[in-house]
Amino acid sequence: xxxxxxxxxxxxxxxxxxxxxxxxxxxxxxxxxxxxxxxxxxxxxxxxxxxxxxxxxxxxxxxxxxxxxxxxxxxxxxxxxxxxxxxxxxxxxxxxxxxxxxxxxxxxxxxxxxxxxxxxxxxxxxxxxxxxxxxxxxxxxxxxxxxxxxxxxxxxxxxxxxxxxxxxxxxxxxxxxxxxxxxxxxxxxxx
Amino acid sequence: xxxxxxxxxxxxxxxxxxxxxxxxxxxxxxxxxxxxxxxxxxxxxxxxxxxxxxxxxxxxxxxxxxxxxxxxxxxxxxxxxxxxxxxxxxxxxxxxxxxxxxxxxxxxxxxxxxxxxxxxxxxxxxxxxxxxxxxxxxxxxxxxxxxxxxxxxxxxxxxxxxxxxxxxxxxxxxxxxxxxxxxxxxxxxxxx
Lengths: 191, 192
Fold this sequence. Notes:
By secondary structure, chain A is of the alpha+beta class. In chain A, 17% of the residues lie in helices and 32% in strands. In chain B, a hairpin with a 4-residue loop joins strand 4 (91-97) and strand 5. Chain B has a single domain, classed as Domain of unknown function DUF1254 (Immunoglobulin-like, Sandwich). At the A-B interface, helix 1, helix 2, strand 5, strand 6 and strand 9 of A face helix 1, strand 4, strand 5 and strand 8 of B.
């Protein structure tokens, strides 16, 4: 009886360790296959012929088809600038200069699992309807209550993810990935 | 070797095996599931502009600012030709294999025309894998060729909807695109 328990613990423990470690790498928590810019993270090899297995798993296990970074680059943020998880009960201010691209979209998605669930997405802001200030900077309020200017409603009632997609991004000469700063994410108030 | 060391090593070895198996085998299974959904809803070698609900299931993309069209290509009967009608907005086409690898991408600026054609053929054209004899698979002039290591995969077209009034017009343009086996196209051209 004792050896049966031992084998059961061994099997469950080993499988759990294998699956958890795989999920950690897929989520980019080890930072091996991702590029981090402030609170934002992107999978640099996404959508390329020589994409690594973890990046490929990252998109396919979420049901998504990756697009190469030359066609579109996708950044996601799960935390604010101070490392606190984004919560729908809190309001946030995003500010900064939008990287050059042909067009972009910024959206909020419920984060019920490690993968961004697009079906439960919240608001959407795009380059077609965004308002810039005189310095060509962008300020976006993420809040439940209506806000003046660019406003995004956080989805759901728990934690959420912000996704920034730049379509046809312009890379500086000699670079093949985005190297500049992205939006600051500052938490304002929480209910 | 002590008992603790044995079990420790066994745990590490099995964990590594599970880890590698998950990374290598789960993504292609997920892609196969996606291809099955497209096969059930649309069929093979047929291009369809997706309604929003289908786009959310197949593409899993929440942006309503994009219109998607997909084609499940099947090279078992030979090469497949994809002809795209490009709307006057941002447009892109990606070709994915059944393992989820993106093997080709092009956008409207690169296409530099209102129409764009591409022929997808299997990387190994020797033996039965090629299906039809090469003579019946003469690609049309000015068509790019892409080789797919897998006999099946997905063509995905994306087009930006700058404002909702333009949605039906852009959909109509995209509906003029098609995805047909080259052999049947050539047969049609040869028939009197």
